[in-house]
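Appendix B.2, paired examples.
Example (i):
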Amino acid sequence: MSRTLSVLALGALLSACSDPELERRVQDLEAKVAALESRGPAAPMGAAPAANPEQEQAAAALLKEATLAVDQMQYDVAKEKVAVLKAEYGSTRAAKASARIEQELAIVGKPEAPLKVEKWYQGSDADAHGKATMYVIWEVWCPHSRKEVPRLTETYDRFHGAGLSIVGVTRQTKDVTDEQVTDFIRDNKVSYPIAKDASSGLSDYYGVRGIPAAAVVKDGVVVWRGHPAKVSDEMLNGWLGR
């Protein structure tokens, strides 16, 4: 039971504020916990049979392959891996964990969401249109957001001249004030536009379950969805045609 609670606690943390390395570690941990629990007492009558350790390992391997395919923007490959994972290992923890990847894959190819801004802390609507635009959903209370949002300043400064737009979008949850956001922008010398979302529409449309999260749009279509730390120079150069 304690092992299960530990995994659930980590899952709850990820749903609020996510980190890609932590996500990978949790996926591995879930597979190991499932293997241990599968040796325990028999499941209640009517419950789905638990996956055995070999199934958990095979499912975890498929999940890693799907994750790698997403990172490499091989979306068709990723979809195939997830489909096999759910069809052949549907009772495994890896299959359940694949829901996040499946949700992100469903976003790619959708039209760009309308940007409805309550206020701009810096920048304007005109700054949201480049050769490629990266929307970054974040909150000032999230430690991973506090790390990633300033880091993206260096990316913005290097690629903005080539046509990259970055727009940081916050909903100011957990009673965060305008002053806290403004202070964070100033203290961390964030150079790209930051806006307050007029509603949760942007987060909902882009399927955000953990923050920080990013969606990259090119020619009015979503071409990538994931954690902003996974965006590489090679990916940016490709989107910008360099």
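Example (ii):
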Amino acid sequence: MTKKKVAVIGATGIAGQQFLAALPNHPQFEIVALAASSRSAGKSYLDAIREPSGMVGWWCDEPLHEDYARMRVVEADSFDSSSVDLVFTAVESDAAKQLEPKYAATTPVVSTASAFRYFDDTPIFVPGVNNSHVALLKRQQKERGWKGFVTPVPNCTTTGLAMTLKPILDNFGIQGVIMTSMQAMSGAGRRGGVLGLDALDNIIPYISGEEEKVEKETQKILGAISGDKIESANFGVSATCTRANVSDGHTETVFVATEKPCSVEEVARAMREFRGDLNGLPSVPEHLIYVHDDPFRPQPRRDREMGGGMTTVVGRLRQERVLGQNGVKYVLVSHNTKMGAAKGAILVAELLLRDGIL
């Protein structure tokens, strides 16, 4: 099989680096272009991530592949997207609003940014959860006159929540959801993010715009496709999002009121059996959802790397009756820069390729 040529835009940032960590030796995709801001353009990638102090700002556990280290970085604003088969973007929302439509005019774009998430003609993909929403892409291409398209992944906090709610929704229905997050510092990025001294010995109780994103995105992702539009899920989602002194891996406590009676054992079984029609994709983990019996799990330090950072890990699954007659509550950990960003976007691309969209 001939590999698809891909570009990574925003390649020097945390999410961009995760694309580079995940794609060496990928059986379907080959990075042929790296793009970033004008500050990095024209430099080798290694020089582009080198700090003035001399420190190399490579933040992934995996080593930087030598081919990428030597690759010349191009300016994102002038990159010719027609030279590749697929574009992965890992840039801030304001930049994405300008760049992604230019790229999508010729080439499919899978994005980690929020710029297009809330348009009616754009699906927010969580692979395995809302595969049918792919139908929106034809509408998007028709209405915008694009040869390509833009399909974003959700906010990293939404990913694990939507993943775990899907088997509950399918089997027992949902009346309402309350979620509180304790989010990793890496979710804020390294430049302009949370200062270490602010987070040390601390919980920061507010993340601007985060709660609204989680609430809106969860309802859209778990909504039903009707013709060429999505009918958002008809249950409420209430989120409180906080920042914790953890490097990677978002922890969330989730309370779910269900429409039908359900036991803890039944919900655990539904989660464990959830497969999402992703069998055979290169990046799909053995377990999309792993349910712990140990009451002291999940923990971000111990569980975030399960399945290569692609598994949502659940524990403390208990009955919940305060919200209504039926329901459950649980704790989850999801890797925010892997399944919640770059590797989740790669899984989206694998799904689109399998289904003949790419």
